[in-house]
Amino acid sequence: MEWNSFGVIGGDQRQIALAESIAADGYTVYACGFDKAAELKGVRAAELRDLALVCDTIVLPLPVTRDGQHLNTPLGSELIPLDEEFAQLMRNRRVFGGMMDRLYQTSELWQEIDTRDYFAREELAVRNAALTAEGSIEIAMKEYPGAIGKSRCLVAGFGRIGKALAHMLRGLGAKVSVSARRPEDFAWIEVYGYEPVHTGSICQKEQYDIIFNTIPARVFTRRVLSAIPTDTILIDLASAPGGVDTEAAEKLGIHVIPALSLPGKAAPKAAGEVIKGTIYNMMEE
Known about the structure:
It is a single chain. The chain is α/β, with parallel strands linked by helices. It has 2 domains: 2-120, Rossmann fold (3-Layer(aba) Sandwich), CATH 3.40.50.720; 129-263, Rossmann fold. The chain has 11 helices and 12 strands. The protein has helices at residues 13-24, 48-54, 84-89, 101-104, 122-143, 160-171, 183-192, 222-225, 246-252, 262-266, 268-284; strands spanning 2-9, 28-32, 44-45, 55-59, 94-97, 114-117, 152-156, 175-180, 195-198, 210-213, 233-236, 255-258. The chain has a 6-stranded parallel sheet with strand order 3-2-1-4-5-6, sandwiched between helices. Strand 8, helix 7 (183-192) and strand 9 (195-198) form a beta-alpha-beta unit. Helix 1 packs across helix 11 and helix 5 (122-143) packs across helix 6 (160-171). The two termini are 22 Å apart.
C-alpha cells in the first residue's frame, strides 16, 4: 500500500476536478470509473481491485449511490456493485464519501471500516450553497428578459442557500424579498434589509419577476400558483420532489425550472475544490 495515495472511484465532473486537484498538490492519485471521460491530468487510471490494493485513502462520489445497489458512476461504462466484495476491498482504508447512509445498508462490513461523510460537514454545505446561488442566478439571467438589477425577486426560504442567494441578488441591485416562518429569521431578514414575507402567505400581496424556491416542501401549491402572473419565472432549487406542484404550474402556464445539483452542473471545478478542501480538513482533524 502507498501511504498518502488517493483512490477516486466514480462520480461526475466534480470528482474529476477533485482527483486532478489532489494530484496537483503532489499526491499520487489513482482513478476508476471514468472511462467515458477524457484522460485525467496527473491521475493514473486503474482497475478497482488494483486501486484498492495500493491506496490508503479512498474517495467515493456524491452521492455514493443513487439506486442503493451500485456506485454512482455516470462517467463509467461498467456498473460497480455495492456488495460484500466491494466492502471487503475497502477494509483497512480511510473511505470518504457523500451521503453514505445507503452505502452502509449494503454490507455489515461497513461497521468495521473507517468511513467519513464529507457531505455532512458544515463548511461544505455553506460553500455548496454559495455555488448553488451562483448557478441559480446564471439560470435567471438566461431566462429573464430584463435586467436582474431591476427585477423584483422572491427567495422562498432562509436556509444556507436562501441566505447566499438573497445576498448575491441584492449585490446585483435587485429588489429582494425573503420568505420565512420563524421569528428569528424575520429578525435577520429585516437586519439585512430584505423585505420579509411569511411563507404561509407567500405571493398573496406582492408580485415578482423571478421566484427562487429553496424550501424542500410543497409550498407552491395550486392555490399559491394561481396568484402568480404567467410571465413570472419560478426556479425550484429544492431537493426532490421539489417545492412546486409542477402539474398545476403547467396547467396555469407558469414557467418552472427545476434546478437540482447545481454545483456539479454549473461549477464542477469549484465544487471539486470544495470537496477536496473538506476532505483535507477531516484528515487533519
